[in-house]
Specification:
By secondary structure, the chain is an all-alpha fold. 82% of the residues lie in helices and 0% in strands. The two termini are 23 Å apart.
Length: 146
């Protein structure tokens, strides 16, 4: 069961990375190019929101079932988790960074809907999605991806 969830989480992460990159680039191009906000731009930002939230739900399942997350292991102290880079990455850094990423994406999506013209919509999406993408890229366990 755990292996299946882990595989789904890993493969879904590629989709998340691709769609987040597309949405961020789309927002930056729309802002710089002073383009009109189109329904396709709305769909891209909405799809990014949906895909990342699905990944969060899968990640929460992983967090509570993974042997790499040491919070729920008897006899493992917080000091031990924080001193071991691998345990710290999987138990603290990765989950926290991904939740923070989703917070920025959700805030950006929510705020952009309240804007009435194209430029502020693209600006809001570009700022929040870029921050989310940067945070996400810093805490992906790259060694397990390749």
């Amino acid at each position: 069961m755990y292996t299946t969830i882990q595989n789904v989480h890993s493969y879904w992460a590629y989709l998340v990375l691709i769609i987040m990159s597309i949405a961020t680039i789309n927002a930056i191009i729309g802002l710089i190019g002073k383009k009109e906000y189109q329904p396709k731009d709305f769909r891209i930002s909405l799809f990014t929101l949906i895909v990342t939230h699905i990944q969060l739900l899968i990640g929460i399942l992983i967090f509570f079932t993974s042997p790499l997350v040491a919070w729920f292991t008897d006899g493992v102290a917080v000091k031990d988790i924080m001193n071991d880079p691998t345990m710290r990455l999987y138990s603290v850094e990765h989950p926290f960074a991904m939740i923070l990423t989703i917070v920025f994406i959700t805030m950006g999506y929510s705020k952009h809907k309240k804007k009435l013209t194209s430029s502020p919509k693209f600006k809001t999406l570009a700022i929040f999605y870029s921050i989310g993408l940067i945070i996400m890229l810093t805490r992906i366990p790259w060694s397990n991806w390749f």
